[in-house]
Structure formats: structure tokens, C-alpha cells
Amino acid sequence: MASPSFTIYSRPDCHLCDEMQSVVAPVAAQLGATLEMIDINDSPELEQRFGLEVPVLFVNGRKAAKYRVTARELQRHLRNTA
Question: Where are the domains of the chain?
Fold first, then answer.
């Protein structure tokens, strides 16, 4: 099975975004997975789609969490979607 890909849609100076990255990054590293951080301010389309509702975590292109996620919740999500 291929390792998952993680994408966090965020914006600068967002403490929740930093918090989510600090939870997801070690899990991604442990799995040898990619973690992409996307600044929604760089895209009017993403800005309209997410607005103030960041961070948003996608795993393998599917929405997995919004605002906060714990390592335990992320591991559970990965097990349930495997």
C-alpha cells in the first residue's frame, strides 16, 4: 500500500494552522508520506472555498479534519480509510 499524502490548507499567521502542522508532520514523517502546506491567500478560488475555515486537512485528496486534529484522531482516520 502506498503511503498517504497529506495536504493542509492554511494561511500565514494562523496559530491553528501551525498547531495542525505540528501534529501532522511527525505522523507523515513516520509513514514516509508527503505533507503539503497550501496558503489559501495565494488563490482567490481557495480563499472563496475555505475563507476563515482553516486549517483544513486532506488525506489522499479527501477532507479529514478542520481546525484541529490530534495524533490519535489522525491515526484512527488512517486505519479506517486503509
Answer: 5-81
Answer whether the bond into residue 44 is a cis peptide, omega within 30°: no
Give me 32's grid cell: 514516509
Residue 51 amino acid letter: G
Q: What is the mean pLDDT of residues 22-26?
A: 97
CA angle 21, 27, 30 (to 5 degrees): 135
In terms of Cβ atoms closer than 10 Å to its own Cβ (0-12, 13-18, 19+), residue 2 is exposed
pTM metric for this prediction: 0.93
* For range 59-82, the mean pLDDT: 91
Q: Which CATH class is domain 5-81?
A: alpha beta
Nearest to residue 59, comparing CAs of 30, 79, 43, 45? Answer: 79
Q: How many Å apart are CA 31 and CA 47, to the nearest integer?
A: 30
